[in-house]
Write a structure and sequence with these properties.
Strand order of the largest sheet: 2-1-3-4
Largest sheet: 4 strands, mixed
Structural class: alpha/beta
Number of strands: 4
Shape: elongated
Radius of gyration: 28 Å
Order of helices and strands: HHHEHEHEHEHHHHHHHHHH
Helix content: 55-70%
Strand content: 5-15%
Oligomer: single chain
Length: about 375
């Protein structure tokens, strides 16, 4: 049998074995669809319906209008109306509310006289992110309220500097767009690592690895045959993910074929990590534990959880060796910006280089284990 015939027979064997593993197929489909949907709804840094208490000491039409603005904003949900600081403290301590709006008794009088007035917002800072976002929402609500009820003589004057923000690529600042794309990238990373590692470790556990070793197949051919079936199936599983992205309103402004090319290169890099894990591990449990040990640092260094710009400079340089970091930039560019290969080629080159190094190291380590 020729070399190509041996390789084709090996691929056919791996494809049949891969398609028989229905649990693995179901896991891949779930990661590309169910996990993307669940994480998009659950993992959002937007603040909605924050339980809020109101202390209205003014008891006027203006104060009630301000309270109505808070309640109708969608960010704050008025759940309690109190009158003392002790009641606010008790509600915050019990966790029944996460914010409190205090309107002073002189609010309406000072507003009618054109005098400066204030409204206090008390926030539960145990969740710093939610408190910071809610503080920004509260400031915006109060500023809009003040502009609508400012005296005419104040409205006539124009500010010395006027800020006119304009947001490109995601004009509504919908965080779900970023979350859908990041979960798609993370699913590809997990699937690539786990499927590649499981395919080799399964041979070790079933005792068929020794049979493969006596066949006239090189380590490179064996690894390539192990990678090809899950690679093809993962690329097909991307299309349900694209439907999920379309349901959430995420636009694909770039080229679909280019997206599939970047995804294929990224999956090869992920599988290279999985092959390395499989060479080290002897059981599937060990492979899964090592995979998650590798996955979390790669995830945090990708910019999907924490912006890279906020990291120390050393970690920013270390993130350049993460294939997920380059793939995430490419996905955002293709979907939201609509850029092409003329802009994204450095990301493709970086993933190709990382993948080549990982696969070469995998073949070397696999050959060393055979000696």
């Amino acid at each position: 049998m020729t070399r190509y015939g041996r390789f084709a027979a090996l691929i056919r064997k791996e494809l049949i074995q891969f398609l028989r593993s229905r649990s693995m197929l179901a896991l891949i489909l779930y990661l590309y669809t169910g996990e993307v949907i669940m994480c998009t709804y659950a993992m959002s840094f937007d603040v909605r319906n924050l339980p809020t208490a109101v202390v209205d000491l003014a008891h006027s039409a203006e104060s009630r209008a301000l309270v109505k603005d808070f309640g109708s904003s969608g960010y704050f949900k008025i759940t309690h109306t109190t009158s003392t600081d002790a009641e606010i403290a008790a509600l915050l301590n019990r966790g029944e509310v996460l914010a409190a709006v205090v309107i002073p008794s002189v609010f309406s009088r000072q507003l009618a006289q054109g005098m400066p007035t204030s409204v206090q917002i008390i926030l539960d800072g145990s969740n710093a992110n939610a408190a910071s976002v809610a503080q920004g929402y509260a400031q915006r609500i109060v500023q809009n309220f003040a502009l609508q009820r400012a005296p005419p003589q104040l409205m006539a004057g124009q500010p010395a500097v006027e800020l006119r923000p304009r947001v490109w690529y995601n004009s509504e600042l919908d965080y779900r767009h970023f979350m859908v794309l990041s979960m798609m990238a993370l699913a590809s990373m997990m699937v690539g690592m786990i499927t590649a590692a499981a395919s080799i470790v399964r041979e070790k556990e079933s005792g068929t690895m020794e049979q493969l070793l006596v066949t006239p197949v090189s380590p490179g051919e064996m690894i390539a045959a192990k990678m090809l079936p899950p690679l093809l199936f993962c690329l097909l599983a991307l299309f349900p993910s694209l439907l999920v992205a379309a349901v959430f309103g995420v636009p694909l402004r770039g080229n679909l074929a280019l997206f599939m090319l970047f995804s294929a290169v990224f999956l090869l890099s992920s599988m290279g990590i999985g092959i390395l894990v499989a060479v080290i591990a002897d059981t599937l449990q060990q492979a899964l534990l090592i995979s998650f040990l590798v996955l979390f640092p790669v995830l945090f260094l990708s910019g999907t959880i924490v912006p890279l710009e906020s990291m120390p400079l050393g970690l920013q340089y270390l993130a350049e060796v993460s294939p997920l970091r380059h793939y995430m930039d490419a996905v955002l560019g293709l979907f939201l910006k609509g850029v092409g290969l003329d802009v994204l080629w450095p990301r493709l080159a970086a993933m190709l280089a990382i993948g080549a190094v990982l696969l070469a190291l995998s073949v070397w380590r696999y050959r060393r284990r055979l000696v």
